[in-house]
């Protein structure tokens, strides 16, 4: 099929590359010429396992084109994916300006029946805005052209996005029941047929329910995390082990084991933004989403838990103290620093007078940018932050090691070398990577999230 993807950000690029990988002819359009230049010269602007390989393969086969040419790109695809950003507005609602600009471009240049697919995470009712925007543009051109708007939310996880796209749990397709909608539904079914393993994984529903499903999924997952974080803090108080509790409840198939890990709080570009956007949608309809208000409040507090444990141990004034930090990205296998708990923690340490040496396997460049922004008003604090190229280099002279992201390379370190390098054998682990009993045997003072028996 001929496909156009508007927006070569995270979602757009993965979608375009994966659809090209299975033989579709894909145009990826972006307004940013620098991004398109990078892609056209063989680079990939984001870190995502497996993505470069499939981009290179499809480009070499002539199935994947990157372009800033709006007219040619929109003429190309029978299916037009809108995969542009929906950043949060000041009130937490999703800003739809980019989505509607893409819809205007499509309306201005479309030249036959098109299926317009909302792939960006957009609030309930957005498909209707997209439809109205396209109709307006067609009206301006004096054209009567049929089209249909479909909602097809993505459920990709950063760090596993290619695999998630290629082997989806489910493919949600929201379409209208009119004739154009049925045509769109059939085409979407065909487009996604190669991704069905064992059984048909497409879930067809109305457009609004599809839009809602995306927010409901992320809100549910964020709720599980905040729930476990709250229980972990209580476990610390009562002297229980949250990891044993996780296994104890996860064995109930109605609960399941996944997404029950207590930690330093959830971050990234999706959960914080989508929880806020759903709260905001509730407010627009006069409904307070009390559970989600609490989910967000618990998460904000959870990002402070490590600093609270550190100040409890070392005192409020950390002047002259030095800390090693392992892990900066909001989770492993990505360089994404958006809403990463490391940002809250490191800023708090620096502002209390401490020095920090930080290491991350891939996020150091992104982290430099993030901290330059976060600490722009406090150059003295900023000057006490250094990045190191090797995880061991963060340790010498540090009063404690702090673990914020659960990269695989941190799971089994040389504990003897660790002990020798640190000023004192103290570890604050925001991801519960080690067994407390083993750490005690090794002579470490080991602070966890919810495992302080
Ligand atoms: C999330 C969803 O998992 C995807 O299904 C969804 O498509 C995506 O958002 C999106 O809306 O685009 P992602 O943000 O990439 O994916 O990352 P997750 O793996 O879900 O992790 C989110 C945060 O939760 C991370 O900070 C992680 O450390 C934290 N987390 C996750 C926990 O603290 N505990 C857990 O048990 C699981």
TrEMBL record:
This is UDP-glucose 6-dehydrogenase. Substrate binds at residues 155-158, 214, 259-263, 267, 331. SMART domains: UDPG_MGDP_dh_C. It is an enzyme of class 1 (oxidoreductase). Keywords: NAD, Oxidoreductase. One of its GO terms (molecular function) is NAD binding. GO terms for biological process: polysaccharide biosynthetic process; UDP-glucuronate biosynthetic process. The lineage of its organism: Bacteria, Pseudomonadati, Pseudomonadota, Betaproteobacteria, Burkholderiales. NAD(+) binds at residues 30, 35, 86, 121, 158, 273, 338. The gene is rkpK_2. Belongs to the UDP-glucose/GDP-mannose dehydrogenase family. It catalyses: UDP-alpha-D-glucose + 2 NAD(+) + H2O = UDP-alpha-D-glucuronate + 2 NADH + 3 H(+). The active site is at residue 270. Residues 324-436 form the UDP-glucose/GDP-mannose dehydrogenase C-terminal domain. It comes from Pararobbsia alpina. Its EC number is 1.1.1.22.
């Amino acid at each position: 099929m001929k496909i156009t993807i508007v927006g070569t950000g995270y979602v757009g690029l993965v979608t375009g590359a994966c659809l090209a990988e299975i033989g579709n002819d894909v145009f990826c359009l972006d307004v940013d010429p620098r991004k398109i230049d990078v892609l056209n010269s063989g680079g990939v602007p984001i870190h995502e396992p497996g993505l470069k390989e499939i981009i290179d393969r499809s480009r070499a086969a002539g199935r994947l084109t990157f372009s800033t040419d709006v007219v040619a790109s929109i003429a190309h695809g029978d299916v037009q994916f809108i995969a542009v950003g929906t950043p949060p507005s000041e009130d937490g609602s999703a800003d739809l300006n980019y989505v509607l600009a893409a819809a205007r471009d499509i309306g201005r240049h479309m030249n036959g029946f098109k299926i317009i697919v909302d792939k960006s995470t957009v609030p309930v009712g957005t498909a209707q805005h997209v439809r109205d925007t396209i109709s307006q543009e067609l009206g301006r051109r004096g054209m009567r052209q049929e089209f249909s708007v479909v909602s097809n939310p993505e459920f990709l996880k950063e760090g596993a996005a290619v695999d998630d796209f290629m082997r989806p749990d489910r493919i949600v397709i929201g379409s209208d029941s009119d004739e154009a909608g049925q045509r769109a539904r059939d085409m979407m079914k065909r487009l996604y047929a190669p991704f069905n393993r064992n059984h048909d994984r497409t879930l067809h529903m109305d457009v609004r329910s599809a839009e809602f499903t995306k927010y409901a999924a992320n809100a549910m997952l964020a709720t599980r995390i905040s729930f476990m974080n709250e229980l972990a803090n209580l476990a610390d108080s009562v002297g229980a082990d949250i990891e044993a509790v996780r296994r104890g409840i996860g064995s109930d198939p109605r609960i399941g084991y996944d997404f029950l890990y207590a930690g330093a709080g959830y971050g990234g570009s999706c959960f914080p933004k989508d929880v806020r956007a759903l709260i905001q949608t509730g407010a627009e309809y006069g409904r307070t989403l009390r559970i989600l208000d609490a989910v967000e409040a618990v998460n904000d507090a959870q990002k402070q838990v490590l600093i609270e444990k550190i100040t409890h141990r070392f005192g409020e004034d950390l002047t002259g103290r030095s800390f090693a930090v392992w892990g900066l990205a909001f989770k492993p296998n990505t360089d994404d620093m958006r809403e990463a708990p490391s940002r809250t923690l490191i800023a708090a340490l620096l502002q209390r007078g401490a020095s920090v040496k930080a290491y991350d396997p891939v996020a150091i460049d992104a982290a430099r940018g993030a901290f330059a922004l976060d600490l722009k008003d406090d150059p003295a604090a900023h000057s006490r932050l250094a990045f190191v190229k090797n995880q061991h280099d963060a340790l010498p002279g540090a009063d404690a090691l702090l673990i914020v992201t659960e990269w695989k390379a941190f799971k089994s370190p040389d504990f003897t070398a660790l002990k020798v390098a640190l000023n004192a054998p103290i570890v604050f682990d925001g991801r519960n990577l080690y067994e407390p009993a083993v750490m005690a045997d090794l002579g470490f003072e080991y602070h966890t999230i919810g495992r302080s028996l």
